[in-house]
Amino acid sequence: MKFRQRLAAALCWLPIAAGAAEHHVVIDGMKFSPQVVQARPGDTIVWENRDMFVHNVTAAAASARMSSGDLAPGKTWRWVVPAGPSFDYLCTLHPVMKGHVDVAGPPRRSPAR
Ligand SMILES: [Cu+2]
Predict the structure, then answer these.
(1) Ligand 1 centroid distance, CA of 30 (Å)
(2) Which three-class secondary structure state does DSSP give residue 77?
(3) Would you list the domain boundaries of the chain?
(4) pLDDT tens digits along 6-35
């Protein structure tokens, strides 16, 4: 009985310790920073447009179907990282603005093996 209680207590910690993370990318000065985000499936990435221009966050490969739509100055866009390959993204209004989402490893919520 005591062991089971301890086990239950230990398991309660797991979702907290292994919870999904939130990453922030600032859009300013015509660039994304950081330029590379390392994330796991289930994590959230928040892009914040602090620039004076409209920008967007769009996957470089059309097949990825990831796009924020245009973000006016001051706007943010939250996006949950799906399982899948890493990918490049850009601002289609200013294609020199490039970023990369490095999708690494299993979801943080998955139980340890
Ligand atoms: Cu832009």
Answers:
(1) 6
(2) strand
(3) 20-103
(4) 655 555 444 444 688 999 999 999 999 999
Distance 22 CA to ligand 1 centre (A): 23
CATH T-level assignment (fold) for domain 20-103: Immunoglobulin-like (2.60.40)
CA of 7 relative to ligand 1 center, distance in Å: 50
pTM (2 decimals)? Answer: 0.78
Please give the distance, rounded to the nearest whole angstrom, from the Cα atom of residue 92 to the centre of ligand 1: 7
How far apart (Å, rounded) are the C-alpha atoms in residues 23 and 78? Answer: 10
d(CA 93, CA 67) in angstroms, rounded, equals: 12
Contacts of residue 61, Cβ cutoff 8 Å, sequence gap at least 6: 87, 88
Q: How far apart are CA 45 and CA 38, in angstroms?
A: 10
